[in-house]
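Example 4.3 (complexes with small molecules)
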Amino acid sequence: MTARFQKTIENVAELKGFGLFTNADVRLRFYPAGENHGIVFQRTDLPGSRRIPATIEYLSPEERRTKLVRGEASVEMTEHLMAALAGLQIDNCLVQIDAPELPGCDGSALPYVEALLDAKIVTQTLKRETYIIQQSQTLQQDQTTISLAPSDSGLRLSYDLNYGNRSPIEPQVAEFVITPEIFATKIAPARTFILEQEIGYLRSKGYGQKVTLEDLLVYGQQGPIGNSLRAPNECARHKLLDCLGDLLLCGCDVQGEIRCFRSGHRQNHQLAKEIKRLKNQSSMDRAA
Ligand SMILES: [Zn+2]
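Answer. The structure with zinc ion bound is encoded below.
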């Protein structure tokens, strides 16, 4: 795989919605950005319109989501937007928001993809950095694993979901070689999901007060409540989407095979950190 050129958008794109966790209304705007700018969030509601680069250095450990923090400024639930940018291979973009959490939309990355495609993706003149996985290795945490292996065919990503026999979510696998077309059609539409009993717990902590069945997939014992699946393995596809979004925090393309088993955001963050470490090590080796 030869390195591709960096990309940004030609026009400004806008999305409005509310945060699934914080319930806060938010207006989001994507702006074009120059080469090597990367993805940067900007909180226009804060004094000085603070900027937060979307890189692993600004990660704040939270359960069930990806939050970035720089000084007093933070941005919550970055993963679906980041997945859209990673999937469409948009490397340089300024993302302005006027609230701490990104719009939850329908729980998928599709509204972001549609807005970005409307803004027209344009190719820039510098090459995008790619880290090529050289050696097989496994990252293990609790009952989860993420394994890495070399591969010639771009980024091959798979997610093996298995919550056991008692879960209403059946065991399922999703596997794709990631391209913008595959991402937009097969992965971006997959919605986030939650068990009915978990909603009660989150609401008791003040989260998700505005959330309805249109904003995500809620699983009861018999399957999704008031909703039909967009794909039989929609949940596994969504976990893959989250992984792709979190992986972008390493700041480069990745070539190789990544296989995830039962992993979540915490393991994805470990993956992004490991890729960044390997990338830095290999550039140091080259310089030596
Ligand atoms: Zn998600």
